[in-house]
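Problem 12. The chain below contains 260 residues. Write out its predicted structure in token notation.
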Amino acid sequence: MKTSKQNPHWQVVAASVCGTSHVKNKQLCQDAHHWQLLPDNVLIAAAADGAGSASQGKVGAMVAVETAIENLSLKDITRDSLADDETVQLLLTDALLAAKKAVEDEAEACQKPPQDLATTLIIAIASPEMVAAAQIGDGLAVAKDHMGNLLALTIPNNGEYINETTFLTSPGALDTAQMRLWRETIVNIGLLTDGLQMLALNMVVGEPHKPFFFPLFDFVEKVEDKTEAKEQLVRFLGSERITQRTDDDLTLILAAFNHL
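Solution.
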């Protein structure tokens, strides 16, 4: 399907793939993602990484992303309403709270402690004029503006140790939530779980790695066949270039807004 440059819109390609260590151990992919295009060129997206130590981490991740997106999709979000900073903050906070409650309710229904469904969560809301993200735990949300500036909206929230992080079900999780709003002409956004952190982030300076993101943003901008594009993204995430650097589950949500 050819894209018309006369009609500005978001293009999104997203995938979650099982890490090589999980394939080897015959475990399910613990990652999950979900996104939706709302009227008025508003994009909402979420990515989650179920804790490897949690027996139902996959369930927790799926419940978290689906609830967060459903919560936002039921609100009357417009580009006008997103012009108010406080409204954006309330939308993201409410989506985090709804996801947390849904995961806890699911744990209760399964007669399991909440930590068995432990998961991280990243949520983003974007329009052509702004982007905002909220995050609990590790992973990364980035955006690129029309001048080519790349900004980390969130950065990995690791604890004292590299593999330690806060989860949605952790005590006081919402107090640790990162939230950032950037008002610029937005061209791209990207959300990823911690499996890709080492490739996507320049750890020395704590900034997004342009050589990782720019070719991917270029790729999503030129998409003509969405099914084929998703297959290409899955192949990229399973390629040797990636699996030599990480054996973790991987989620990547890429979006491009084609401005007139």
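Discussion. The longest helix spans residues 85-109. Students who got a different answer should revisit the alignment rule from Section 12.3.
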